[in-house]
Amino acid sequence: MLPEVTATRYVTPLREGGSLPGIVEADDLGTYVMKFTGAGQGRKTLVAEVVCGQLGRRLGLRVPELARIQLDPVIGLGEPDEEVQELLKASGGLNLGMDYLPGSIGFDPLAYEVDSAEAGRVVWFDALINNVDRSWRNPNMLVWHGDLWLIDHGATMIWHHNWPGAAASAAKPYDASDHVLARFQPDIASAAAELAPLVTEELLTEVAADVPDEWLVDEPGFDTTDAVRRAYVEALLPRAGTIHTRITLGEPTAERPSQAPGWLTGRPGRPVPVAEKGASA
Ligand SMILES: Nc1ncnc2c1ncn2[C@@H]1O[C@H](COP(=O)(O)OP(=O)(O)OP(=O)(O)O)[C@@H](O)[C@H]1O
Ligand SMILES: [Mg+2]
C-alpha cells in the first residue's frame, strides 16, 4: 500500500497543470504535488498515475514517490482563487500525492542531452503504458539534480476507458514520432531486452494492489475491486512482451494540436516550432 499522510497546509496551485494540481505540506513534514479526486479529469487519471508511477519505479525509472493524501478542505479556506476553493471542496478525503522535487525544472530537449539507452527505456515504458502525454509539446519530465524524472502518467492506458475492448486496444501499436525523446536515437531493442522480462504477472499484481479501493469501486462490469485490478494486469502483461515490435518513430508532426485528448489533459496542446532532428544546444 502507498504511504498515507494528511495534508496540513495548501501552499499554492501549479498553474501549468491542466488539472490544477496543488503543492501541499503534510503531517510527515513532506511537501507533495497533490492531484485532486474532485478534478474534472476523473478518478481514472489517478488510477493511471498509481499503476504507471509504481510500475515505472519498480522498473528502475525515476518517478517521484507517490502517497495517499487525506484532505480536509478546511485547509484551503484562506485560498482566494474560487476555482481552487471549488476543487478543494470537491476533494475531501483521499487524494493522490507525488513527492515534490524542489528546484526541478521542466525538461527541455534543446538544453539537455539524453543518451540513447535512457531514451530507449523511457520510450519503451511509454509505449507499454500507451502514454500520449510525453510529447515535445508537453514533455511531462523534470530535470532534478542533473537527472531526468518522469511525472504525470494520467493520460495512459486508454483501454481502461472501455474495458470490453481492452484486449484489442492493448494490442495496438504505439506511435512515438512526437515523443520528446524521439530525437535522441532511443535504443528500444536494448530497453525491451532489459525491461520486458521484469514485467511479470507478480510485479503487475503488486503494482495494481497499490491502487486505493476507493478509486476502483463500482466500476461497471466488475463485481470486485480486485477484478478491476486484474484487468489492468491482463492488459499490460501481453503488451510488455511484444510492444517493442510495434513502436513507430517517424518524423514528428509540426504545428498541430496535441493528440492528447483534451478531456484527459484538460487543455489543448501548445504548438511550438519543432527543432531539427538531431540538433542540440
Ligand atoms: N513532483 C513534482 N515536483 C515538482 N514539480 C512538479 C512535480 N509534479 C508536477 N510538477 C509541476 O507541476 C506541473 C503540472 O503537473 P502535472 O503535469 O503532473 O499536472 P497535470 O494537471 O496532469 O498536467 P497536464 O496539463 O500535463 O495534464 C508540471 O508541469 C511541473 O511543472
Ligand atoms: Mg503535465
From TrEMBL:
All copies of domain HipA-like kinase, residue ranges: 14-239
InterPro entries given in the database record: HipA_2
Annotated stretches, region: Disordered: 251-281
Source organism superkingdom: Bacteria
Protein name, as recorded: HipA-like kinase domain-containing protein
Species whose genome carries this gene: Streptomyces jumonjinensis
